[in-house]
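re: ur question from yesterday

yeah so i grabbed the chain u mentioned. its 274 aa long if i counted rite. heres the sequnce exactly as i have it in my notes:
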Amino acid sequence: MHQSAVTLVLLSALLHATWNAQLKGSSNRSQFMANMSTCMGVLALICIPFVPFPVGSAWMCIALSAVLHVVYNLLLLQNYRLSDFSSAYPIARGISPLMVTYGAFVFMHQRPTLFAIGGVAMISSGIVFLSTGKDRAGTRATLSALATGAVIAAYTVTDGMGIQRSQNTLSYTAWVFASYLLMPVVLLLLRVPVKVVTIENLPRAAGAGAFSLAAYTLVLWATHYVDVGIVSALRETSVLWAIVLGRLFLGEAFTWRRVVSASIICLGIAALVS
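ran it thru and got these structure tokens back, copy pasting raw so excuse formatting
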């Protein structure tokens, strides 16, 4: 397996968990999301003149991905309103690797080994295990998180196909993230009380946007070298960081269940990178 790709995906997991923790910990999540999306869109627009123009066949993937990312962000806001960071995050992220692996099998004709499938399954199982027990999320929060996981799988497979067609990671990523400029508009259309951008939390939102953009660019670059399902599973190890960040910055409990889950996830990682 391409070790540099694995290392960078694991780094992206930390970046991903960091911006999610910032969103969850914000006093006004909708405005934080609007600020972050605007900053991401502007950063992407700055990059566009310096990257190749996407080929025609990639545009369908870019358009579909843009829609799916907007839906994902709306569901994410709902998840963090209904449950705490360490409950909503694992469900959403835990189910997606297996769904991505299946989607990549059907739409991208990728054929992971049984050993790799076992590693993906272990990571997913360890993540989902976090969401069980007495502190599990309620029915509504669980359904919302499951829907989020399905959307994550959909945009991951879509972007994997888009990268294959575009043959340029930076170009594809820039155009997908330019669509984030639509996010504040969508929130306003849904009558969410936000502004396109405000000074409130702007530096933190800009940092979170930069983290998100960097994290996903690393993930998409890695799909050139590693099957999309394996990349997805390694990226979702961000849950390990979510446990730590939830404890350090959000005051969430560090339980035995989370220790067991972390151990299972680590074993899954070892299976994938061995």
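noticed a couple things. DSSP finds twelve helices and no strands in the chain. also The chain has a mean pLDDT of 85.
anyway ttyl
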